[in-house]
Amino acid sequence: MAEEQQESRLTVVLALAANLGIALAKTVAAVITGSASMASEAGHSFADTTNEVLLLTALRRSARPADRRHPFGHGTERYIWSLLVAVCIFGMGALFAFVQGAEALMGGEGGEKDALVGYLVLAVSAVLESISWRQAFRQTRENARENAQSLLAFLRTTDDPTTKSVLFEDSAALIGLVLAAAGLGLHQLTGSAVWDGVASLLIGVVLTVAAFLLGRTNLDLLIGRQAQPVILRGVRRILLAAPEIEALVDLMTMTVGTGQVLVCARLDFRDDLGAADVERACVRLSEELHTAHPDIFEVFLEPVPRDDPALRERVIARYGRPPSYWTAGDRPGQPS
């Protein structure tokens, strides 16, 4: 967990340094060239720089330990700050690009001034953005391999929005650089600012899509999403393998922070067990779950009869269909 925290911090710091330098260079180039798409890219880079500061704040504050007022820790605070990143991408980046594009479209004709400066800045920016993107992509790919998932599946299910935010930001930035270069070139060739304006509007669209995807991810995590599939499978396997368990009646998991999963399971124990046997089994199973999956933060195991009608109704209400109880013998499926 500590190593992942340090890796995420390195990814964010690298992106912060790259974006700050790029933002300043793009601003100078935008003033010299008068390019709307270049100005949009400058606004985009300043927004990304602000985003990295927010992400660093998220990493620091979410790492605080649990206390009396926050018994499950402060892990979900990372999602709040990352949600602000998505808002910032749209509010500072996309809206600014749309404004620049609209002004360019209504500005009439005119040639680019010192377009070579713009090309040089875009080329340098592409190199710096590529370095930051490579770090974010490498970390994301390694995390996906550790979870035995494809890259796309990991991006859909990951509970760490920090690296994902940097990866999406840098991907949007690289696409934006291509669009800015195209707008700059077509404006220079045709003398029409329409192409520059169109490029700026397209940059705004790219940033809007990135902001929407990141916002939806963090909103999902804030609401309370279940654990990743590899953890769910592991929990089911361990519980069903216990000789004291006759059936896994219900299993609920919730991500309460990056690398922090809450597990609540209702179990039908063998009828011939005494209270002390059930207690010892619960303690042992909790230790086994923590050992097998370090991301498991807390475990709550509740002994219940599998045929309780009130419990069955609650499970049906949650999943929308009758529950399928797992037993150690046949291991039927469970609603997910």
Automatic annotation (TrEMBL):
Entries under InterPro entries matching the protein: Cation_efflux, Cation_efflux_CTD_sf, Cation_efflux_TM, Cation_efflux_TMD_sf, SLC30A9
Gene3D superfamilies for the chain: Cation efflux protein transmembrane domain
Coiled-coil annotated residue ranges, if any: none
Residues in Cation efflux protein transmembrane domain copies: 12-223
Keywords of the record: Membrane, Transmembrane, Transmembrane helix, Transport
Membrane topology according to the record: Multi-pass membrane protein
Bilayer-crossing regions: 12-36, 79-99, 115-133, 166-187, 193-215
Protein location: Membrane
NCBIfam families per record: CDF
UniProt-listed PANTHER family: HUEL-CATION TRANSPORTER, PROTON-COUPLED ZINC ANTIPORTER SLC30A9, MITOCHONDRIAL
Protein name: Cation diffusion facilitator family transporter
Species for this entry: Actinoallomurus vinaceus
